[in-house]
Automatic annotation (TrEMBL):
Residues 158-240 form the Protein NO VEIN C-terminal domain. It comes from Janibacter indicus. The lineage of its organism: Bacteria, Bacillati, Actinomycetota, Actinomycetes, Micrococcales. It comes from the Bacteria. This is DUF3883 domain-containing protein. InterPro entries: NOV_C. Pfam families: NOV_C.
Length: 263
């Protein structure tokens, strides 16, 4: 099989799996927020066509330096410790994944793709300070919401709210800001007897990694109208991503604990 034919076959296979995600309305959703059976389908498909498996390729294609510019992050379980190794992927394949929100750039010549939830040390980080050194769950991320200086965070927050409000008003919803009421969400959208309680989070990067307060998480668990609206690249190229409350509560991971030492 020629390198050209192999290349086309591989991309077609990946696109086929991800197109099913589009049909299910899950485009641009991090892999960990897919349903378990959907995760398994995509992970199985991708793993079957990585470089170190029986991927369709010839030696010339495999050795081509132009093809080895990106990395696939695969988790390895060693006893109770979870580690991560990096496997080269072709740039065109990563482009397909990135279009679906499954990849992110950490270095000009590397785009790791997180396969599963990660916790623990990384065996070979791409560079010092790589954000993958922390958990990849929705509640953590030094590159996401809740980190950085207060002035920038406020700008990101206001920009995100404006994006969400414009989006819903353009669709005929009446939007009211209720963040000051501390009710567990920021905007209430109403239309034709329907209501959506929108918790808005803005991030300055392309990763939908945010922090939720205890009150917000409680609302996610109990309020059927609650919806998480995350605006990535809020100050530069805003993209609105929405997450159902079940996905949010399933992905949430406690990162800070209150410790009362006075007792």
């Amino acid at each position: 099989m020629s390198s050209h034919d192999s290349n086309g076959r591989l991309v077609d296979l990946i696109r086929a799996g991800l197109s099913r995600a589009d049909e299910l309305g899950r485009a641009r959703v991090p892999l960990k927020l897919y349903r378990p059976e959907e995760q398994e389908e995509l992970v199985t498909l991708l793993h079957a066509y990585l470089w170190d498996t029986a991927a369709p390729h010839d030696d010339e294609w495999h050795r081509s330096p132009g093809n080895i510019m990106t990395l696939w992050a695969e988790l390895l379980k060693i006893g109770k410790e979870t580690r991560e190794r990096l496997i080269p992927l072709r740039t065109d394949l990563v482009k397909v994944l990135t279009e679906r929100g499954l990849g992110y750039r950490t270095h000009p010549r590397s785009v790791p793709v997180l396969v599963r939830e990660y916790s623990g040390p990384i065996e070979t980080p791409v560079h010092p300070g790589d954000p993958r050194e922390t958990s990849s769950t929705i509640a953590v991320g030094s590159w996401g919401a809740g980190f950085g200086d207060a002035v920038t965070n406020r700008k990101v927050e206001l920009a995100a709210e404006a994006v969400v409000q414009r989006h819903y008003e353009a669709a005929g919803w009446t939007v009211t800001r209720v963040a000051h009421l501390k009710c567990g969400w920021d905007l209430t959208a109403e239309r034709d007897g329907q209501a959506r309680h929108l918790e808005v989070k803005g991030v300055s990067s392309s990763l939908p990694s945010i922090l939720l307060t205890r009150n917000e998480l409680r609302s996610a668990g109990t309020d059927p109208d609650w919806l998480l609206a995350v605006v990535t690249n809020a100050l530069t190229d805003p993209t609105l991503l929405e997450f159902e409350r079940e996905s949010v509560t399933a992905a949430a991971d406690p990162t800070v604990y209150r410790v009362n030492l006075s007792q």
